[in-house]
Amino acid sequence: QMLLANAKRPFVILGGTRWNEEAVAQMRVIAETWSLPVGCSFRRQMLFDHLHPNYAGDVGIGINPKLAEQIKQADVVLLIGGRLGEMPSSDYTLLKSPYPDQALLHVHADAGELGRVYRPTIAINASPAAFVEAFAKCKPAASPSWAAEVEKAHAAYLEWSTPPQTGPGAVQMGPIIEHLGKVLPEDAILTNGAGNYATWVHRFYRTRRFGTQAAPTSGSMGYGTPAAVAAKSLFPDRTVIAFAGDGCFLMNGQEFATAVQYDLPIIVIVVNNGIYGTIRMHQEREYPSRVVATELKNPNFAALARAYGGHGETVEKTTDFAPAFERALASGKPAIVEIKLDPEAITPTRTLTQIRNKS
Questions:
Q1: Neighbour order of strands in the sheet with 10-14
Q2: I need a labelling partner for 323 at 20 to 30 A (CA). Which of 110, 180, 227, 338 fits?
């Protein structure tokens, strides 16, 4: 409490597990009471409402440079539940290790994680739920002085999460994610595996509620489809959307048959660019034009869905997506919506050619 009371530029990072809906609600009240800017760790976006005025953005791959600078310039960092490992720390550049410049208050359920990478000013061995329940009882002695910075951080997030409308090829992933944000209910569950396709989801989809995200922080390919099957079986009345790259889907895509067998109408959005995108990106960055084993010969994914007994759609331009998605929803069947993405669109910010030429 004293650390925050004396802070001038505090920042909160939420992550890890052992959260629940009540704890997330309590964290929102804490952020409002103390006027704290809040970021969510890599693939833990569901821990804070993205349209809440205290939300500053996700602390993960492809972090907003303005957000990264805000964390570096903070004088107090409150890390609740997360470890701030390689991905959320931007390769351990946001905080210095082992002794950060910022005062670090680290809360983690595993005592072995406290001090393992960063030496905290204060270490608290507790679950996030237990900590926020206790901290919610603390009130600031005076009105916090950093409210303007909180407002500025949220405005920067809204700008960062507004997708560009143009890019390589006939299909633009940003507007597609933006459309889903408008039409999906707030309790829709989104799942994904690993791959560059997920960067569009994590940057442009504005998550509103706890319990709406299933995504592997370990970077495991093939997770999205079976996770969606499990989510739909647990929550049959909620909309469940899986995202997968073409390579990612082919790891465990046969679980689509399970969705058909048990009448679980998930929608799998297969972002098909014909390559292992992340690996290809690293190849072009480190060894320009020396491409090895990253090009894929894929099936017709829409036809594959129909072969399994589901519904299939193919999207070859951005305007195709909305009606294709509506038909998939209306079918009442497990569905695959295949998006034909230009491999040049390798990230939301840089093309494959730009990465190659910069190497």
A1: 55-59, 38-41, 10-14, 76-80, 103-108, 122-125
A2: 227
> Which residues, 6+ apart, have CB-to-CB distance to 261 below 8 Å?
none
Domain ranges of the chain: 2-159, 173-358
Q: Tens of pLDDT along 167-209?
A: 999 999 999 999 999 999 999 999 999 999 999 999 999 999 9
- For 152, phi then psi, to 5°, come to -65, -40
DSSP 83-120: ---TTTTTTTTSS-SSS-SSEEEEEES-GGGTTTSS--
CATH of 2-159, one of 3.40.190.10, 3.40.50.1220, 2.60.120.700, 3.40.50.10610: 3.40.50.1220
Query: Which residue spans within the chain are E strands per DSSP?
Result: 10-14, 38-41, 55-59, 76-80, 103-108, 122-125, 189-192, 213-214, 240-245, 267-272, 311-315, 335-340
Whether the full predicted model's pTM is greater than 0.90, yes or no, is yes
Query: CB-based contacts of 6: which residues, under 8 Å, 6+ apart?
Result: none
Which CATH code is given to the segment(s) 173-358?
3.40.50.970
